[in-house]
Design brief:
The protein is an alpha/beta fold. It has helices spanning 2-20, 45-56, 78-101, 105-113, 128-141, 153-162, 177-185, 216-223, 232-235, 254-263, 280-288, 299-304, 325-330, 352-371, 379-390, 410-413, and strands spanning 24-26, 117-123, 145-150, 168-171, 190-199, 201-204, 214-215, 245-249, 275-277, 293-297, 310-311, 314-315, 320-321, 337-345. Helix 5 (128-141) links the parallel strand 2 (117-123) and strand 3.
C-alpha cells in the first residue's frame, strides 16, 4: 500500500506540472552536494557491463575485441575458451567490485554534483511522466545540471530533435521516414532506446453502463471520417440513443499516430469533429465530464484516474481483454500495447552531462517506469538497450528505410 501511495504521489506530481505549464517544465534544482575529489564511477560502467555480459555469454566478447584485445588471440576449442573467459571475467568483476566497495554512495553523488550544463528534452506527453520522474531523481545527485522537459507531442518533439534544437526526444512511437530524412539533412545522428511498455486505453464515462467492450471494427466506425456514428445507438442498436462525444490526442501526438494506424489504417482518415488536446489530463477531464463521451490515452493516465473514467475491454478477435499490467506484459492486450522510446542526439551524447543523464535514466528506468504507472521492459530487453547505448548504436530498428514499420514483438525487433 505504501509503495502504491508513493507511485500515485509521483505520478500526480508529474502530471500536475503538465497542467501548470502545458508546454514546458524545468526540473527543480536542489542544494548541491559538497565538492569532492572522488572518482566518477560512471566511467567504469562500460567495462562492468561487458564483464557482466561475458559471464552470461562468453562469446559476446567477440563483438568487443577492441576493448578486450586478448580475446582476438584465443584460438582454443570453444569449451576451453568458455572456461578461460568466465574465469577472467569473474576475476575482473571481483576487482571492480572491490574498487567500488572502497567508494561510498556519497562519493558518487559528490562526483556527479560537479557536472554542469543544460539538457533539453521535448516530445510525447505520454512519456513525459517517466522522463520527468527520472529528471527529478537525477537532479538530486547532479544538482548543477539543468534538465528542461517539454511536451509538444511526439511529432512536435521530433521536429525540434531532427533540427538539432534539443538533446533528447520523448516518443510514443518510432521515428518516421520523413523525420529521419530531416535528421539526415541536418546531419543529426540519433540513438534509439526503448524504455517502457504502454497500453493505449479506450475510456468512457463511469456512468456508461452499456459499453462493456468494443471490437476493433466498432472502434474504427467510431473514429473513421467515413463513418456516420453520431450516437451510441449507431454503434449497437441495443445501446441508448445518446449523443457521442469523441475525444482524442492532437495530430502531433505519437499516441494519435499509433491509434490511427491501428484502427483506420495508415491511409485512412480520422473524423474531424473530435475534441483534441496534446495534454492527456484535458482528455481525462473531458471524458469524466460527459456521460456520452469516449476517448483514449496512455495507460498511466487511466491507472491514475480510475475513479474518474472507465476503461473499455478490447476484443481483437479472441474475446474482450481488459487493460492491466499483466495483459500488456503478456501481449494479450495487442494491438494496443506498444513500446515507448527516447531518442538521443549522438553529438549531444558526447557531453558529460548528457552521458550521465542517459546512464542514470537506464539504470533507474525499471523502477521509476512502474512508479508512474507504466510497464517496465523485461530485464533482457533493458540489457540490450544498455548495450546499444554504450556502443552508441545509431539509427532506428523499428522503421525500414522505405518507411514501413518493422513488424514483430519488441524482443524480436530490438537487437
Amino acid at each position: 500500500m505504501a509503495a502504491k501511495s508513493r507511485s500515485q504521489a509521483r505520478f500526480r506530481k508529474a502530471v500536475a506540472s503538465v497542467c501548470c505549464c502545458p508546454r514546458q517544465r524545468t526540473t527543480r534544482v536542489p542544494t548541491p552536494f559538497p565538492k569532492s575529489k572522488a572518482s566518477d564511477l560512471r566511467l567504469l560502467e562500460p567495462f562492468l557491463y561487458r564483464i557482466l555480459t561475458c559471464v552470461r555469454d562468453p562469446f559476446a566478447l567477440e563483438e568487443t575485441h577492441s576493448v578486450w584485445p586478448v580475446t582476438a588471440h584465443i584460438t582454443a576449442e570453444k569449451s576451453s575458451m568458455n572456461t578461460m573467459i568466465r574465469l577472467a571475467s569473474i576475476s575482473l568483476l571481483a576487482a571492480a567490485s572491490a574498487l567500488i566497495g572502497a567508494t561510498t554512495d556519497q562519493d558518487a553523488k559528490v562526483s556527479l554534483s560537479t557536472l554542469k550544463g543544460a539538457i533539453k528534452v521535448d516530445g510525447s506527453s505520454t512519456v513525459y511522466p517517466i522522463t520527468e520522474a527520472i529528471s527529478e531523481e537525477f537532479n538530486k545527485v547532479a544538482a548543477k545540471v539543468r534538465v528542461t522537459v517539454g511536451i509538444s507531442g511526439t511529432g512536435g518533439g521530433f521536429k525540434r530533435f531532427c533540427a538539432g534544437e534539443i538533446d533528447v526526444a520523448d516518443a510514443s512511437r518510432p521515428i518516421k521516414k520523413a523525420e529521419f530524412e530531416l535528421a539526415t539533412k541536418a546531419s543529426v545522428e540519433y540513438i534509439e532506446l526503448p524504455i517502457a511498455y504502454d497500453g493505449l486505453t479506450i475510456v468512457v464515462h463511469p456512468k456508461n453502463t452499456w459499453c462493456n467492450s468494443l471490437t476493433l471494427e466498432q472502434i474504427k466506425r467510431i473514429y473513421s471520417a467515413a463513418g456516420s456514428v453520431k450516437t451510441w445507438k449507431d454503434i449497437n442498436p441495443e445501446w441508448p440513443d445518446k449523443a457521442l462525444k469523441v475525444y482524442s490526442p492532437g495530430t502531433d501526438s505519437g499516441t494519435f499516430d499509433y491509434f490511427k494506424e491501428t484502427t483506420v489504417g495508415k491511409d485512412g482518415s480520422i473524423r474531424s469533429d473530435m475534441s483534441v488536446s496534446e495534454d492527456d489530463n484535458v482528455l481525462v477531464r473531458g471524458v469524466a465530464g460527459d456521460e456520452g463521451a469516449i476517448g483514449f490515452f496512455g495507460c498511466a493516465y487511466y491507472f491514475e484516474n480510475k475513479d474518474k473514467v472507465k476503461a473499455v475491454p478490447i476484443d481483437a478477435g479472441k474475446g474482450p481483454i481488459a487493460i492491466s499490467v499483466e495483459s500488456i506484459e503478456s501481449g494479450a492486450y495487442a494491438p494496443f500495447s506498444r513500446p515507448l522510446f527516447i531518442y538521443i542526439n549522438k553529438k549531444s551524447a558526447e557531453r558529460a552531462e548528457v552521458q550521465a543523464f542517459i546512464d542514470f535514466y537506464l539504470a533507474n528506468a525499471g523502477k521509476l517506469v512502474s512508479e508512474v504507472g507504466f510497464v517496465k521492459l523485461p530485464d533482457a530487453i533493458y540489457a540490450k538497450v544498455t548495450k546499444n547505448w554504450l556502443a552508441r548504436r545509431p539509427g532506428t530498428q523499428f522503421t525500414k528505410p522505405t518507411g514501413e514499420a518493422v513488424s514483430g514483438s519488441l524482443a524480436n525487433v530490438y537487437e
